[in-house]
Amino acid sequence: ETGVTQSPTHLIKTRGQQVTLRCSSQSGHNTVSWYQQALGQGPQFIFQYYREEENGRGNFPPRFSGLQFPNYSSELNVNALELDDSALYLCASRSWGRSSYEQYFGPGTRLTVT
Amino acid sequence: KQEVTQIPAALSVPEGENLVLNCSFTDSAIYNLQWFRQDPGKGLTSLLLIQSSQREQTSGRLNASLDKSSGRSTLYIAASQPGDSATYLCAVLFSGGYNKLIFGAGTRLAVHP
Questions:
Q1: Pairing of strands B72-77, B19-25
Q2: Cα distance between residue B104 and residue A42, in whole Å
Q3: How confident is the model at residue B36 (pLDDT cuts 50, 70, 90)?
Q4: Which residues contact A91 (CB under 8 A, 6 or more apart)?
């Protein structure tokens, strides 16, 4: 069973640019969530995808958007980057319908906005 | 508002000590509670998952308890080792929160030889 993978590992962007982060879910998982973790804080929920549809969103503006593909991989897109977007972005997957609701996290992508 | 709080924010102990990390949450209507470990700059490693119907879970030197009525969970680490040094995060899946985990800010643990 393969774990959750994310790419790239690190990324440096300039304010105003756009960025795409990628996530491959753990084998057999059909639900993916994205989290933002600022330095020294706990992760904050951005949104969740199930069957290629967004079905939950946290307190993030529309310039944060996502996609889920038929193979359950996912992308997080952020437009018009701001300095405060600098953070570790984490992807988590689980299998919808499993009663445990346990989520499995990837290693994260460190985004730096200058 | 659903919130998760962790105390203490940081802890430094000598090797071999038994220690307790605390997590409190504001709403007793939860599906489960997960404890994670995070090494600097890395992702999250799940340590223990406690379902709302359970009182505790154990894995090796780790034991996590859950008291829904008081909105508290504790993570007990026995015989701490320098390799246990990391940030420990508590996360709650509240009922009605679909898949949204609410995290505490974490406890930064340093175990020195």
A1: antiparallel
A2: 6
A3: very high
A4: A4, A6, A21, A23, A25, A32, A33, A34, A35, A74, A76, A105, A106, A108
Q: Which residues in chain A (40-69) have CB-CB distances under 8 A to chain B?
A: 40-45, 48, 50, 55-56, 58
Catalogue the E-assigned strands of A1-108.
5-7, 10-13, 19-24, 31-37, 44-50, 53-57, 64-68, 74-78, 87-94, 104-105
**pLDDT tens digits for B38-51?**
999 889 999 999 99
Distance CA B33, CA B92 (A): 4
What is the C-alpha separation between A111 and B72, in angstroms, rounded? 34
The nearest CA of chain B is from the CA of A52 a distance in Å of 15
**Nearest-CB residue to B32 (from A48, A101, A104):** A101
Nearest to B100 among A45, A90, A107 (CB): A45
Percentage of chain B with pLDDT > 70? 98
Burial (CB < 10 A; 0-12, 13-18, 19+), residue A90, is: buried
